[in-house]
From TrEMBL:
Lineage: Bacteria, Pseudomonadati, Pseudomonadota, Gammaproteobacteria, Immundisolibacterales
Organism annotation: Immundisolibacter cernigliae
Entry protein name: Type II secretion system protein L
GO biological process, one term: protein secretion by the type II secretion system
One Gene Ontology cellular component annotation held by this UniProt entry: plasma membrane
Keyword terms of this UniProt record: Cell inner membrane, Cell membrane, Membrane, Protein transport, Transmembrane, Transmembrane helix, Transport
Entry keyword Methyltransferase: no
Length: 387
């Protein structure tokens, strides 16, 4: 019997298909619809994020550990405090990974068991989106964004939209469900209309990671393992033959990982010199995002929205900083005329005070620094142009 999948937002909103029709309800309604049968859960919650990495060919237990070390610089918590789920290796060599805090996963499983749901697997919704492009699934009051192989975002449109505008991806696939929000005007998105049950239509995909692995794997009856014993013996012999090659591959991966960490650290220090030596890149990046989040009350995100309107489309930033109510951006413009055009556009923004303290021609571009502050007496910075 095929496993039935339920979409869950991590709180109390569920969706499932019943005789081909989309149904919605709370946790109790979902448990009633499951009828005591094992179900698969498609999790659309900000607590879980996905990535794709190139990993060596190792046994499952060692592969999970290698995946944790590959993501070490992106983790804000200790390795023992997170669950890193490993999916299947894709045809392009990348392996899908999903990450969630163990405390959060424990709380979610306890709540589902209390409701009477028998969960056979939990797959992040972002992991079902294509890894080869920036893709957004726009559902009513919810956006799930897959940022290629690097990471994912999940949450309310008013939270995810400004982040997508700041990232300014060169191409964006926007999967639009009925009632879902449209893409921000500044993004050149390819809009594709999809049905309301798109999240359930995507599940399952062969490479998708299941969060219920390792210590969280569902228990199997003892009799189910008996047919696998001969295969396990053969697999053990095969793994013994490959052990030496695996050790050499692990050493090579360690050297490659060290070089990559150094390069990422140098780039982070170049963009954010005031952060000092990077210790935990994910934690420091989250601290930057928290500063921007607090800035939603003090002006950071609105100031960033003003900058997005004033800067040329596709402009690449070389540095960004927010402190003491001022947003500072550094970038390169093609010539002095572009600087003057930017100055003219900023002069039309009545709710901000804009300064261009630096515009230096160097290497064929004009290195420019822009400082934005809320204008004196302005209660908030406008988030869009007046008609």
């Amino acid at each position: 019997m095929a496993l039935q999948y339920f979409r869950w937002d991590g709180a109390d909103a569920w969706q499932w298909l019943e005789r081909g029709a989309l149904r919605e309800g709370d946790t109790a309604a979902a448990a009633s619809a499951a009828g005591g049968e094992p179900v698969g859960v498609v999790l659309a919650a900000p607590q879980v994020w996905v990535s794709a990495q190139t990993l060596p060919r190792l046994p499952a237990a060692r592969l999970a550990r290698a995946a944790m070390f590959a993501l070490e610089d992106q983790l804000a918590s200790d390795l023992d405090a997170v669950q890193v789920a490993v999916g299947k290796r894709r045809a392009d060599g990348l392996t899908e990974l999903a990450v969630i805090g163990r405390a959060q996963l424990d709380a979610a499983l306890a709540r589902l068991r209390e409701a009477g749901l028998k969960v056979a697997g939990i797959t992040p919704l972002a992991a079902l989106l294509p890894v080869d492009a920036f893709t957004v699934l726009a559902e009513p009051d919810h956006l799930t964004a897959r940022l290629g192989a690097q990471a994912s975002l999940c949450g309310a449109p008013q939270q995810i939209g400004p982040l997508l505008e700041a990232l300014a991806p060169p191409s964006l696939r926007w999967l639009q469900t009925p009632g879902g929000p449209p893409p921000p005007p500044g993004l050149g998105a390819q809009i594709i209309e999809v049905p309301a049950e798109q999240a359930l239509c995507l599940a399952p995909t062969p490479a998708s990671p299941d969060l219920l692995q390792g210590a969280y794997a569902p228990a199997r009856p003892p009799g189910q393992w008996r047919p696998w014993r001969p295969a396990a013996v053969l697999a053990g012999l095969w793994l013994a033959l490959l052990l030496a090659g695996g050790l050499l591959e692990t050493a090579r991966l360690g050297r490659q990982n060290a070089a990559l960490r150094t390069a990422i650290g140098e780039e982070f220090t170049r963009l954010f010199p005031e952060e000092g030596r990077p210790v935990s890149l994910r934690a420091q990046a989250e601290r930057r995002l928290k500063l921007l989040d607090r800035g939603a009350r003090g002006g950071a995100l609105p100031l960033l929205a003003v900058a997005a309107r004033a800067l040329p489309p596709g402009q690449i930033l070389t540095a960004l900083d927010y402190r003491d109510g001022a947003l500072t951006l550094e970038f390169g413009l093609p010539d002095v005329a572009a600087v003057e055009a930017l100055r003219t556009r900023l002069a039309a923004e009545r709710a901000v005070k804009a300064d261009l303290p630096m515009a230096v021609a160097e290497g064929g571009v004009v290195r420019t620094r822009l400082v934005l502050r809320p204008a004196p007496g302005a209660s908030a910075v406008a988030t869009q142009e007046e008609p």
